[in-house]
Amino acid sequence: MSPEPKSQEQWSAVDEYVNGLVVRPDAALDQALASTAAAGMPAIAVSAAQGKLLHLYARMIGARRILEVGTLGGYSTIWMARALPADGRIISLEIDPRHAEVARTNLSRAGVDHLAEVRIGPALESLTKMAAEGEGRFDLVFIDADKANIPEYFTLSSKLLRPGGVIIVDNVVRNGGVLDGSGKDPNVAGVRRFNDLLATLPDVSATTVQTVGSKGYDGFTLAIVGG
Asked: Which residues are CB-contacts of 32 (< 8 A; sequence separation ≥ 6)?
């Protein structure tokens, strides 16, 4: 029997082992994390393994247009942009102008700025405007912003998605906190509202996968909408 993972130390060690073999060091991505930290931004970007997973999902579905809700320093944006064809496009929504500036620098350094656009403003407003202007037909949406508004982000993003498109929502297990129905934590409450919403949508096929790794215990939801 293999030993059961029992600690954050062990989860991180396994991530490091896997990353060294199949994810591998990358100067542009490492610099993106370093510049994000230097700017005093929180260390909440996806892990290298999770970034590679996003990249692989985009490639698996042949994504040409990707929408990201929550840019931070552009780390995940770089991963997904690298999966796009030469005429592809990723639009990332960021509320903080300072974060957007760091992200744009990181995207340029990684050589994907011609594929990526960072738009500044509250995501709910940006998504509403995009839907009103008919800016849709995205193949993949990655939602990684404040958790209290996840249901609204999902609903608006669905309107911008092509039939059969994919939406990935990050941080939906909250170290097991998703089981807490008290409503005291707005992030958990947002996730639970999102789960309740998913249960009512007949045209959405979804599942949630729990994860452990260098970012701790959490999980993500994968959904196919329509099609």
From this structure: 73, 74, 75, 78, 106, 109, 110
Going by C-alpha positions, the residue among 62, 66, 63 that lies closest to residue 77 is: 66
Domain boundaries, the chain: 8-225
Determine which helix (DSSP H) or strand (DSSP E) holds 224, and give its type and residue range: strand 216-225
Considering the entire predicted model, what is its pTM?
A: 0.95
pLDDT tens per residue across span 149-170:
999 999 999 999 999 999 999 9
What is 102-155 written as a DSSP string? HHHHHHHHTT-TTTEEEEES-HHHHHHHHHHTT---EEEEEE-S-GGGHHHHHH
pLDDT tens column, 27-36: 999 999 999 9
Geometric angle at alpha carbon 28, from 144 and 63, rounded to 5°: 50
Spatial distance between the Cα atoms of 158 and 141, rounded to a whole number of angstroms: 9
Characterize the bridge pairing of strands 161-170 and 65-69. unpaired
Per-residue burial over 203-214, b if 16 or more Cβ lie within 10 Å, else e, is ebebebeebbbb
Rg of the Cα trace of the chain? Answer: 17
55: pLDDT strictly greater than 70: yes
8-225 folds as: Rossmann fold (3.40.50)
Q: Which two tokens stand for residue 200?
A: 């009512």
